Amino acid sequence: MKKILLFLPFVFIIFSGCDTLSQVAQTTAQQYSNPTNTEISNGLKQALELGTSKSSDQLSVVDGFFANAAVKILFPPEAQKAEKTLRSIGLGKLADNVILSLNRAAEDAAKQAKPIFVSAIKQMTLQDVTNILLGNRDAATEYFKRTTTLQLSASFKPVIQTSLNKVGATKYYSDAATAYNKVPFATKINPNITEYVTQKAIDGLFYEIAKEELNIRQNLGARTTPLLQKVFGFYDKNKK
Question: Where would you tag: which of 23, 45, 72, 204 has the fewest CB atoms within 10 A of its CB?
Fold first, then answer.
């Protein structure tokens, strides 16, 4: 009788353990089961909103462009010879002022990006979402390029123009171009810099978005919610 009484607690523990294991198994099965269409849509949109917001925020702070070697805006390619010439004749400070002011203008413009991306995300169809989730590792970035570039350009350009004027970039670059254009036999350069900065600001933004997209596709730690874990776990199982 004593042996039976001693054995009963172990039986209870075993069956309690079975119940716990069953609950864990059920939770795991739910977590890693294929997501519904609604979950895929909500999960991907959540990821894209987080990624685009982070990219916009990072680039819109002071030195967001200027201190980031990957997106820092330099003299236009056709004007880099001019920059070299200016530095060689003692006008290096003028060239530095131009570069700093171009990046400050891009940082100001980046603040305009977030609502444009949010609007593009809200308009995504289920087919768009599925194509992005199971597409190439830059599928979301390419989607944004197709759907937001024109609007970004229209939104960025006046902000950049205003910012360039505010910080003196228009004058700095115009002065630099004018000074270089006076060099004998030099190929003349266009003193209008707004279009160039607008395009470089957009390029920098998409560069950062591509980084964020790749991060959430490859880094489990970037999937910070159960929904993201489920949706991108499905992506992991189905990626090529």
Answer: 23
